[in-house]
Design goal:
single chain; 138 residues; alpha+beta; Alpha-Beta Plaits; four-stranded antiparallel β-sheet; 19% strand; binds adenosine-5'-triphosphate
Length: 138
């Protein structure tokens, strides 16, 4: 089975239990889970691919505004399946086109979109190591 990194962002942490119920019902297994508050430096490192973009400073401010929940999820085709379940990046779009998706249900707009999912198997391994450096890779 494949693994992916899921984040529940500060805007949706108060709904973390509901979101976990949804993903368990969709057949994901939670291998690891941590609640953390990122420093601006850690957050900038995590989102380094977006450095220099107009929304970068506000993304860092948002992602460090409170606790987040990081989870390693396992399922067949987990990276793709989790991206499908969370829906489009912009929650406003998600509400119109993927009304059952997690971002439609729990997000607000293009920034406050409730959850994160790794975009490839390579990113997933990097992001899992970022949050769970002691995690053993089979
Ligand atoms: P994530 O990486 O969080 O799963 P994603 O891959 O769907 O999201 P990216 O394009 O990688 O989206 O953007 C990372 C995050 O930056 C988004 O999830 C969102 O919170 C924020 N973001 C993206 N685009 C914008 C924007 N135009 N304005 C404000 N925030 C944005």
């Amino acid at each position: 089975v494949e693994r992916t990194l899921a984040l529940i962002k500060p805007d949706a942490v108060h709904k973390a239990n509901e979101i976990e119920t949804i993903l368990l019902n969709q057949g994901f297994t939670v291998l690891q889970k941590r609640r953390v508050i990122l420093t601006a430096e850690q957050c900038s490192d995590f989102y380094s691919e977006h450095y220099g973009k107009k929304f970068f400073p506000s993304l860092v401010a948002f992602m460090t505004s409170g606790p987040i929940v990081a989870m390693v999820l396992a399922k067949e085709n987990a990276v793709h399946q989790w991206r499908e379940l969370i829906g489009p990046t912009n929650s406003t779009v998600a509400k119109e086109t993927h009304s059952e998706s997690i971002r439609a249900l729990y997000g607000t707009n293009e920034q406050k979109n409730a959850v994160h999912g790794s975009d490839s198997e390579v990113s997933a391994e990097r992001e899992i190591r970022f949050f769970f450096p002691n995690c053993i890779v089979e």
